[in-house]
Amino acid sequence: METIFAIIGGTGFYQPLSSECLQEIEVNTAYGIVRLQRIDYQGYTVFFLPRHGKEHHLPPHRINYRANIAALKELKVDYVLSTTAVGSLRQEIPRGMFVVIDQFIDLTKSREHTFYDGLEGEVVHTDFTEPYCPHLRHYLCDTLKKRAIPFKTQGTYVCTEGPRYETPAEIKAYASWGGDVVGMTNVPEVTLAREAGLCYASLSLVTNYAAGISLSPLTHQEVVEEMNEKMAVIRDVFMEVIITIPPEKDCRCNFKEDFKLGN
Ligand code: HPA
C-alpha cells in the first residue's frame, strides 16, 4: 500500500515544497472544512496544510486542530511532518538551532483538544509516554545529521495559549520545569494526531530567545525572518525524509486501528 505524507507548515511556511502542486482540495470533516494542497513528489503523495492559513490569518487559539487532523486521517495519511517556530528557554539553544522535540508541557486553555469528548459514550485515556513518533523522529534526526545541520535530538516544548508572548517570569518558571523551547501551536495538534493513530513529528526552529533571555522586545517579524532564512533547509530535509523513510513502522502510534472520526 502507498505511504502517504502530510506536511503541516507553521509560521513562515505557507507554500508547499515544490511547484508540483497537483490539486487544491477540500475535505469536509465532522469538525469543519479543511483546504489543502496535494503534491506529487517523486511519486509520493504529500498533502500540504498551512496551519495558520495561507495568509497567516489564524492565531494559534483559533486554528481548527480537530478538523485539520480529521482531514489528514480521512486522506489516509501515514506520516505527518510539521514545523514549529519556537523561542528558546536556554542560552545554550541559540536562534537558528533546530530541535527534534520529544516531549511537551501543555499550558493551553481554550482549545478543542480531543476527539474523545465522551459524546459517543466512549471514555478514552491515551498514553503519552512517547508523544512524538519515534520512527519519524529517527529519520528526521538522521537526515539532519547527514546534512551536518546543527540540531538537538531532544527537547521539551512548552505550549502556551498565546497569542501574546510570555513574561520573563513565565519563561523562568517554564525553564525550571525542564522546558527547552516555547511555542503556541504544537498542542493539541500532536495529541489529536496520536488519538487519530497518525505518526507525527515536529521540527522546531528557534527563531528567538524567549522573553527575559532576549535583551529586546519580541516581534513576530523576527520569527518570520528566521523561518524564511531556513525555509529551503526545512523543505530539503522533509523531502529527504519522505523518500527515505520505510513504510514498515516499529512504533505504536496507530494504537487503535479501528479509530473512526466523528462517526
Ligand atoms: N514564545 C511563544 N511562541 C513563539 C516564540 C516565543 O518566544 N517564538 C516563536 N514562537
β-strand number = 11
Unreliable stretches (pLDDT < 50, length at least 5) are none
Q: Under CATH, the topology is which?
A: Rossmann fold
**Assigned CATH architecture:** 3-Layer(aba) Sandwich
Biggest sheet: strands, sense, closure? 11 strands, mixed
Q: What Rg do the Cα atoms give?
A: 17 Å
Overall helicity:
25-40%
Q: Give the helix tally.
A: 5
Helix vs. strand class? alpha/beta
Proportion of residues in β-strands = 25-35%
How many individual domains? 1
Shape: globular
Distance between the termini: 25 Å
How do the helices and strands follow one another from N- to C-terminus?
Answer: EEEEHEEEHEEHEHEH
Kindly describe this structure.
Strand 9, helix 3 and strand 10 form a beta-alpha-beta unit. The chain is built from 5 helices and 11 strands, in the order E-E-E-E-H-E-E-E-H-E-E-H-E-H-E-H. Helix 1 runs parallel beside helix 4. It has 263 residues and is an alpha/beta fold. The protein has one domain: Rossmann fold (3-Layer(aba) Sandwich), CATH 3.40.50. The radius of gyration is 17 Å and the shape is globular. The longest helix is centred in the last third of the chain and has 25 residues. The structure holds hypoxanthine. Hypoxanthine binds next to strand 5, strand 10 and strand 11. Hypoxanthine (HPA) binds next to strand 5, strand 10 and strand 11.
